Amino acid sequence: MDEDFLADPFEGKGKLVSDPCRFDVRAWVYTDENGVTHVCHVYRVDPVIEANRERYNASYGQRWGDGRVVASIPNGVYYHGDFAKAVHDRDEGWIKRFLNDSDNQKLRTFRGNL
Predict the structure, then answer these.
(1) What is the pTM of this model?
(2) Domain map of the chain by residue range?
(3) Average model confidence (pLDDT) for the chain?
(4) The predicted structure's pLDDT at residue 2
């Protein structure tokens, strides 16, 4: 998966412009023949997804309780989708639907429905 993370999403035409100290995101820029500049951010989510799977599997048989961590959201998902807005708006219904959706199971760290 590191090959995909490190690869130029503009098929060799892009320029890497990200901060070398940030290991979880790469920013690429490409200006096309019409003068339009395109920016692509590529996020490394594998470490978060792997840690989530380990925590999820270890949660078998554990009980729910206050303060239970039920998910870990990679920054790219949190800030570049609707999740941050839902948190800001305190939209617990949206957050529960999102985390209970089977398409988002890789973000979960604890079994069960919210």
Answers:
(1) 0.70
(2) 2-43, 46-107
(3) 88
(4) 60
